[in-house]
């Protein structure tokens, strides 16, 4: 295959500023190039066409031209620039039976999977609401396979790198005959033109009308939730006729409104893949815990519960801020010297290695920030949240954190504790949300039992 053809394939469905494109494709003549203005005047305001944000009057160059600060990280766009792209032509070999996964779905999972196939086939917009641990990824397989078998291009995106790193190997295994690409900000691997792409939602700014099916996981998670830039990136990465699927355990008010007015269809699964309910949190007040750990001691109630927990489970202990990690670790080590304790946070250079080690069974306690609130599956871990009243622990975050427990059928009753100084509305609503999902789950369990009776 000639170099020009290879470069054309690498360019398909992607978008650049004119400056970026000339530096990347300078040696190739590609007649399929399309251009569109980088800015438009709408209601007397200058609007960036890459991120759809109004350009501030303060972002002005010395020569009088404006630039967009909102999406500056993806290359500067200046007034008068063009956005350059090459239309997606799906130039890859199709596989008749791309799904190589040999697992089975429960009856409820199969119903949700059938709906996903319908959404992909009819190019609809859909929300799959499923509790943490319901097996959302496996429910997507049939829909992804349907798209790939038709020669279509599929993207699975998530707001956080950790979630993408969890998803990618599972999708690689499930679609072993299909070339795939993982994209995130700090990756070093070169870009490849593949029918299946797994990426962070930020990476979708690099695409324009590229995908036939786009699946966005964890749409309630930071930084995607309530972020109009990332919502725009998702929409622009979709082809004009595209299946768009949102996955969540805690749908936002905006999603609920879109469902209620008929903009989105919905399917729901309120029970985990192993058929058990969600562990419901125990809420306990612990006052002046920060003062206690500064003296390298543990509050008595926390010490007793940790000791009791470690008899049968390991522990994932969440704290509000990075500076809490070391103080809590020292307090545990001094109070319980035989316990193996590690810490992890988003900027930790050893983050991936520490998570992998804990997943493999190394260590008794892993103290973490919200970096592990979602996208990580661990076997037989209890979950404690210290300082659950902190602003970082909103309703959706607390629901997701509680969902780290009980994910294995053999350990479905793992403990969950929220420790607080002030009993906040977020704590109350998170507990209510989990109980509400369990009520729905019990009704499903009751339905199954009634059908199974002779």
UniProtKB/TrEMBL annotation:
Matches recorded under SMART domains: DEXDc, HELICc
Pfam families given in the database record: DEAD (PF00270), Helicase_C (PF00271)
Domain Helicase C-terminal: 304-452
Lineage top rank: taxon: Bacteria
Domain Helicase ATP-binding stretches: 117-269
Protein keywords: ATP-binding, DNA-binding, Helicase, Hydrolase, Nucleotide-binding
GO molecular function: helicase activity
Stated name of the protein: DEAD/DEAH box helicase
Native source organism of the sequence: Latilactobacillus graminis
């Amino acid at each position: 295959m000639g170099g020009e053809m290879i470069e054309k394939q690498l360019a398909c469905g992607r978008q650049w500023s004119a400056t970026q494109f000339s530096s990347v494709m300078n040696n190739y003549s590609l007649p399929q190039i399309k251009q569109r203005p980088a800015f438009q005047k709408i209601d007397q305001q200058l609007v960036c066409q890459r991120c759809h944000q109004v350009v501030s009057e303060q972002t002005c160059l010395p020569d009088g031209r404006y630039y967009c600060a909102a999406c500056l990280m993806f290359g500067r766009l200046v007034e008068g620039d063009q956005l350059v792209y090459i239309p997606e032509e799906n130039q890859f070999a199709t596989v008749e039976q791309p799904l190589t996964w040999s697992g089975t779905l429960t009856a409820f999972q199969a119903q949700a999977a059938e709906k996903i196939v319908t959404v992909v086939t009819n190019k609809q917009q859909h929300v799959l609401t499923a509790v943490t641990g319901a097996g959302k990824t496996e429910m997507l397989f049939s829909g992804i396979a349907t798209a790939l078998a038709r020669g279509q291009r599929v993207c699975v995106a998530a707001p956080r790198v950790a979630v993408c790193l969890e998803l990618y190997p599972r999708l690689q295994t499930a679609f072993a005959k299909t070339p795939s690409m993982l994209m995130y900000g700090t990756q070093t691997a070169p870009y490849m033109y593949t029918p299946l792409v797994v990426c962070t939602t930020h990476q979708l700014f690099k695409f324009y009308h590229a995908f036939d099916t786009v699946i966005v996981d964890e749409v309630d998670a930071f930084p995607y939730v309530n972020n109009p830039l990332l919502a725009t990136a998702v929409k622009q990465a979709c082809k004009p006729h595209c299946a768009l699927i949102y996955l969540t355990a805690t749908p936002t008010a905006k999603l609920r409104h879109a469902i209620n007015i008929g903009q989105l269809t919905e399917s729901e699964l309120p029970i985990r893949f192993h058929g058990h309910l969600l562990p419901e949190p125990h809420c306990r007040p612990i006052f002046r815990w920060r003062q206690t750990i500064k003296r390298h001691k543990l509050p008595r109630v926390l010490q007793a519960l940790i000791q009791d927990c470690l008899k049968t489970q390991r522990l994932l202990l969440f704290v509000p801020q990075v500076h809490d990690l070391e103080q809590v670790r020292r307090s545990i080590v001094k109070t319980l010297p035989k316990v193996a304790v590690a810490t992890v946070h988003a900027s930790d250079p050893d983050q991936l290695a520490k998570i992998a080690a804990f997943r493999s069974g190394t260590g008794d306690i892993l103290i973490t920030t919200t970096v592990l609130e979602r996208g990580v599956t661990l076997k037989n871990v209890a979950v404690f949240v210290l300082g659950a009243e902190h602003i970082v622990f909103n309703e959706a975050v607390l629901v997701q954190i509680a969902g780290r427990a009980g994910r294995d059928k053999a350990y479905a009753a793992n403990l969950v504790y929220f420790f607080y100084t002030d009993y906040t509305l977020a704590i109350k609503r998170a507990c209510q949300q989990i109980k509400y999902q369990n009520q729905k789950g019990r009704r499903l369990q009751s339905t199954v039992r009634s059908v199974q009776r002779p």
